[in-house]
């Protein structure tokens, strides 16, 4: 469950698709500012603080998932619907 949620977050942040367990955050275009956003989004989803250093110490998705704090929210992560952004102007 954690890997699936992380993959979704990585895809959103990095603007890529098909993120897998063996992918490296930095090899996909991540950098320190995006790593900060990443930890914030993970924390918002699971309700637990995530140290930034974890992203640098464990940049591969599967490895990072193994080192994240335990949370009951991982089990319910599938229930979080993806929201499709609509871009454009709203007519008046």
Automatic annotation (TrEMBL):
Top-level taxon of the source organism: Bacteria
MF terms (GO), sorted A to Z: phosphopantetheine binding
Transmembrane segments: none
A GO CC annotation given for this chain: cytoplasm
SUPFAM superfamilies per the UniProt record, alphabetical: ACP-like
Keywords, in A-Z order: Phosphopantetheine, Phosphoprotein
Carrier domain ranges (all copies): 1-72
Any GO BP annotation: secondary metabolite biosynthetic process
Cofactors named for this entry: pantetheine 4'-phosphate
UniProt cross-references to PANTHER family, sorted A to Z: FATTY ACID SYNTHASE, NONRIBOSOMAL PEPTIDE SYNTHETASE
Protein name (record): Carrier domain-containing protein
Originating species: Streptomyces alkaliphilus
